[in-house]
User: Fold these one by one.
Assistant:
Number 1:
Amino acid sequence: NDKGDHSGQAKKIVVQEGITGLIGACFYGMLNVTEVSLPSTLKTIGTYCFYNCSLITSLTLPEGLEVLQNACFLNCEKLTELTLPESLATIEASIIGNSNLVLTVLSRTVQFDNYAINTAKTIRGYIGSTAEAYAKSNNIPFETIDKILKIEIVNHPSRAYHVGEAISKADLTVKITFEDGTEQETDSYGLSYDFG
């Protein structure tokens, strides 16, 4: 009872320039797809769009993308690295759940739904970003992508410390200058010494 649907045989998806939204489950269950090409004009990836496209190993999301809807990459088990562009404004529920995923978030302010990322190996993003807050509140390891240019001591310890003695963080605040020129004062750091 073949009605001409050969989507299960497709290995590559190419979405033409000019398309702004992939709405609904348009590529749902295309089990043999390994490669996807998305246009620079894309703004929205819809609910269940790539659900069960389990052989996709890499995917480049274009700058200009604004919304990832529910379960859009759910069960894409071979997708182990994904970078979300700076333009992204909203991540809805359960977009992906892959315990081997390294998710890099370039937006500092993207809004995460409470259950946006079911699981991930690591979320990478900027210090102070919504990605860092989401990772910490969901017990997902976080790695910074900030590039540090300079670290300065803002206030010095109020007394002398000896090797092996714990330094009170209240006694030592540092100012970090990042590559983009922003500065941040913090008492959240680790100190180690190499006397070798």
Number 2:
Amino acid sequence: TVARATLLETSTADRPAADLTIRAMANHLALHSISQSLVEFLARTHAAFTPDPGTSALPAVGFEVLGSARFSDPEVEIKDKVTLYLHRIAPDNHPRNHRDGPSVGSVDLDLHYLATVWVDSAMSEQILMGWLIRELYCHPILDRRPLSNKAGWELAESISLVPENLSTEEMSRIWGPARRGCRLSFPFLARTVRIG
């Protein structure tokens, strides 16, 4: 059994994997803060990874947050990297987040990410994807500590990282406009982000 903890937490105590909600509002820098914090976390855990006896080390790669223009431009080479691409932002319609009264103050969002491995070797590709999925499973909660101060996060704020199941059609809508061909990817959600 693999212990699960908050990002950057060294304790192996189990933490709940249920959807957690930010308790206050962040400012307009929140989306970039979350994306950058996630990619920096993955870079740190990759560098610190120690393989189990008898297993191989992780392939060397860089880590990057991709914007829509870079992801969709086939002239831009992406090689030997693990990337995060924020491909969709949607209102969080979870019943716990419905508020009475006028729709003012804050907006609750789900951030839809695509984690992608860009390497040529099938073995390296699958090793890196297996490691990435395991890291997100073991650390399902993004708490305040790694988040940028500029986004105005409160100390009690936390965000849940949840695997997402995308259909073949939904994946085609992401990869088709990119004109790159499909790459091995893992979709997941960051929820709930409250901006106001």
Number 3:
Amino acid sequence: LVAAKAEEKIYNIMTKVMSRDGIQLFLLSESLGKITNKVNSILEPFIQKTINMEMHGDKIEINIHNTSGNKIQTLSGMESLMLELTLKIIIGQISVMPKSSVLFIDESISVLDKHRLSSIDELFSFVRQYYSQVLLITHMKQVNNHINYTLDITKIDDCSLIYNLSGKKPMSLDIKYSVVIDKIKRKAKKAQVIDV
């Protein structure tokens, strides 16, 4: 009976340590300062604001400060996109999970205004520093001049047809085998997948 109680105690301790509020939360809280510094160093050339991340229990609060040090409530579309991509990059770098050399950007550039959209090459150059392949899913044909290769995907009945820009004969793709195509199918009748 004593041995069973000791095993139960060990099991309860291990369960607590391995839970979301255990080692994972401890490591995150210990690393948050380094993560915050890395975010700011990556973002510095692109946005003139400082990001501050703090732990409150099991939640991370992200505060944004302008150059005067005043807390601000919102970011522009480009600034939000840069912060989102930077967080993905850093989490990918510190994660112990297998690393991917491919980044999917799904409709994120729709937040860009005309000025930022015209300078989208800066965004693509930034992302290419961290990923060898970037797949952009968008309905915005304005980016065609800024990318290496495009595929037009058109849904006809239950089938998605993929065309390249040169208009060659489409190849049929069974939707159930492609997460990307399935996601596009749910969003719209026609979209583009762009390899930047």
Number 4:
Amino acid sequence: PVPNTNISLQYAVLALLATMYGPVAGGLIGFIGHALIDLSWGGSPWWSWVITSAFVGVVIGLFAKKLDVQEGEFGKGKVAVFVVANVIAHVIGWVVVAPVLDILIYAEPANKVFAQGVFAAVSNTVTGVIVGGLLVLSTREFMRCIIQMLLDSYQFCRMSGDCMHFILRSTTVFQSKCNILTNRQSDKLSIRILKN
């Protein structure tokens, strides 16, 4: 309904990365990511919006220490902080920063750029909060599982045995002396290379 605007998933990824790595990374990811997206569409970057994406990344990144998603629990309190960070970043960025820069840089009509800004603020906030929140939760769970697996030596050894069993079962270069891999006993593995 509003010209030159769309719903974009880039702000979900930006929310995730800014939350994990802080304001500097968030700003750079927002700036570089938006510029590359604009270039990939065949035009030149719309610098007012590129700068605004960097601003959004910095603001969300400022909440990274409070959120501490890599170490702490991502419970209700941190979800609320994540939502507030996204709302603040997108509303200020798209309702204030982007329209003002559009007017200053490109001499765009005020009513057009503020309408675009409101649409962008709403759609990017929803995308950042819902999809970005799901990304944060899934990334945390994935990282937690990897760390837990590495710390749990029994599980790590079992997984290594499973991997070895999978690799060796489907190869013709190796042959086991007996079928010891069926019990996942990779520590007793006895293999010889077949001669041509």
